[in-house]
Recover the amino acids of this structure.
């Protein structure tokens, strides 16, 4: 068997790619490493999954509204109504991850350049490299709370720049793109697609979806994984120019959003009460964390906070918290994030109290930072 395996060669580009490492999970610990909904899913979404389970032998597109479970077209219609955009400009995917995969396939050819301000969500880089694209990294400035400046983006673009990835709010830094900066980028680069990843937008003040009508090079990606609490079902979508959406559908894998995901997403969208409770809990608890964490923090518009644990390393802080039953994200795996940042998802009040307590006891050990703790 061994010799046969050695005869098979994967693409060169694959050999250089690092496997995606999700936030860690330790049995029994408080999990604040993947920015999930601290309240869990809407009960109505759970009921929809149970009610619609009987339909899973059918392809999602053939489901009809009559089953009470919804179909792709119904979910798109519901989203379009709420966002005030035409349904023809909305596409679905298996999470934002799935949408991003299709978008990169749609735009990036061998040797094309893609601007990625870092630190940010690592999948952008992986997908670009897989298509033979060249990521052009732009270091975000900690002194400016990591915010992206249009002039920096424009400065690194070249004729072969096909895409720009702006995450707003950005993971792991929590900052948002300023409207003036976004407009300047969209206007300066009319032939590059600008993806604004709004995975966490429900926790921010505003969305850039209304700008899609003005700029045909703007694409907004959104998800049901975070504020809607459906990370395990993998439902994401994008809003874009209608002509572009037609091209997108040629590239997308058919039926990438599963039937139960569609049913749950529809129920979650209609359960406005659960979304409201989630957003108000996260905003109040985010402020509570930012006020009480003894280390340096950064403003956040998302459901997580970024903490600079200097003089400790992020690895030391991570291990310290794990010993106390709390799992956060050590950001040293994010390109351009250095070695002293951790990202903590906003949890319930009880969980956040434990986080603050643990970080306070780490803080008191500052003088021993060179030692193990
Ligand atoms: C910025 C950003 N985009 C996209 C995703 C992936 O979202 P989804 O679960 O919809 O694939 C994440 C998940 O952590 C994220 O942080």
């Amino acid at each position: 068997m061994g010799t046969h395996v050695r005869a098979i060669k994967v693409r060169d580009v694959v050999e250089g790619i690092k496997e995606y490492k999700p936030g860690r999970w330790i049995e029994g610990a408080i999990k604040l490493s993947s920015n999930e909904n601290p309240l869990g899913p809407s009960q109505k979404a759970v009921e929809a999954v149970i009610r619609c389970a009987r339909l899973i032998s059918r392809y999602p597109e053939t489901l009809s509204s009559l089953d009470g479970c919804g179909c792709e077209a119904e979910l798109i219609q519901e989203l379009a109504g709420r966002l005030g955009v035409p349904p023809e400009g909305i596409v679905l995917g298996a999470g934002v991850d799935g949408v991003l995969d299709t978008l990169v396939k749609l735009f990036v050819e061998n040797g094309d350049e893609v601007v990625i301000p870092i630190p940010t969500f690592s999948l952008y880089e992986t997908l670009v490299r897989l298509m033979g694209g060249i990521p052009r990294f732009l270091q975000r400035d900690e002194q400016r709370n990591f915010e992206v400046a249009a002039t920096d983006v424009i400065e690194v673009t070249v004729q072969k720049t096909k895409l720009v990835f702006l995450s707003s709010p950005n993971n792991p830094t929590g900052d948002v793109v300023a409207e003036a900066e976004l407009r300047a980028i969209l206007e300066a680069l009319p032939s590059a697609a600008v993806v604004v990843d709004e995975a966490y937008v429900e926790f921010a003040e505003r969305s850039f979806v209304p700008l899609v009508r003005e700029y045909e090079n703007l694409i907004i990606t959104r998800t049901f994984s975070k504020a809607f609490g459906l990370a395990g079902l993998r439902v994401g979508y994008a809003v874009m120019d209608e002509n572009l959406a037609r091209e997108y559908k040629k590239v997308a894998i058919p039926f990438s959003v599963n039937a139960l995901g569609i049913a749950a997403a529809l129920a979650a969208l209609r359960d406005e009460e659960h979304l409201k409770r989630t957003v108000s809990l996260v905003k109040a608890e985010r402020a509570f964390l930012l006020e009480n964490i003894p280390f340096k923090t950064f403003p956040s518009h998302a459901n997580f906070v970024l903490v600079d644990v200097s003089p400790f390393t992020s690895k030391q802080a991570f291990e310290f918290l794990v010993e106390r039953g709390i799992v956060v994200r050590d950001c040293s795996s994010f390109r351009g994030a250095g070695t002293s940042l951790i990202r903590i998802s906003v949890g319930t009040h009880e969980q956040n109290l434990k986080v603050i307590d643990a970080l306070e006891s780490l803080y008191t050990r500052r003088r021993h930072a060179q030692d193990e703790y």
The radius of gyration is 21 Å. The longest helix spans residues 272-292. Residues 35, 95-97, 121, 167, 171, 197, 199, 223, 225, 231, 236 surround pyridoxal-5'-phosphate (CB under 6 Å). The longest strand covers residues 161-167.
